[in-house]
Specification:
With 280 residues, the chain is an alpha/beta fold. It has 2 domains: 231 residues, Phosphoenolpyruvate-binding domains (TIM Barrel, Alpha-Beta Barrel), CATH 3.20.20; 37 residues, no CATH class. It has 12 helices and 8 strands. Strands 1-2-3-4-5-6-7-8 form an 8-stranded parallel β-barrel, surrounded by 7 helices. The longest helix is centred in the middle third of the chain and has 17 residues. The radius of gyration is 23 Å and the shape is elongated. The protein binds 3-methyl-2-oxobutanoic acid.
Length: 280
Amino acid sequence: MERKKLMISDLLARKREGGKITMLTAYDYPMARIIDDAGIDVILVGDSLGMVALGYESTVPVTMDEMIHHAKAVRRGTKFAFLIGDMPFMSYQVSREDAVRNAGRFMKEALCDAVKLEGGDEVLDVTRAIIDAGIPVLGHLGLTPQTVSKLGGYKVQGKDCESAQKIMDQALKLEAAGCFAIVLECVPGKVAEVITKRLKIPTISCGAGAACDGQVMVTNDMIGLFDRFVPKFVKQYVKLSPLLNLAFVKYREEVELGKFPGPEHTFTIKDEELKKFKKR
Ligand code: KIV
């Protein structure tokens, strides 16, 4: 079957029909191409960029300009997947105008298909304003890394009835505000299952179990390219860091020993031209 560019209607249909949605993060052109070619439905230019690609301690320092720069590269490598730009900390908290303008930058400058923002009640107003401006919004509840200091650390959210109910209430409000899907991060699987059943829009699990309508992982985590820590909910499908280390060490040794480059990596010149050149 001919592959078509994925739309929001396809994501909603996937939920109705009981199929799963696949989502991965990307931060540059080559990775976007590989992910898109693998048939992944959604690519998120996550603000995890800050930690796994830019070396910050958290996602908080990431700026709009950094996000746009990387989202543009990802756009160039993405043909079929639905592309979402993650709004960084302080790009949507100051004012409604600011939020709409920054969401608009993802659409106009990086040609994203939608934006994501973290939070519930506190972002309902800006979520509505962004959607009213014609920009689709993916919600994000549970563990919201941008406000991790307020949450008291990287902790599982919704572990008691009260806090689980709060996530449910906020999910219903985001759905009513017009979000097309919601990421649930670090929420017990059974809580995510109840929320998933109540919502008409898809839930995307990031450490929220198998009952959600889709799954997302930070690509650099799942390919073993970021090993400062590996969260419990991450499955490493390949461990690239040690493989790359082997390649780099081998390259260094071969250069030092004069084994690289070999004749097959070297351009040639005709003998007579070389003679003339040497005589000069
Ligand atoms: O920034 C990010 O990569 C995210 C995903 C983990 C959902 O928000």
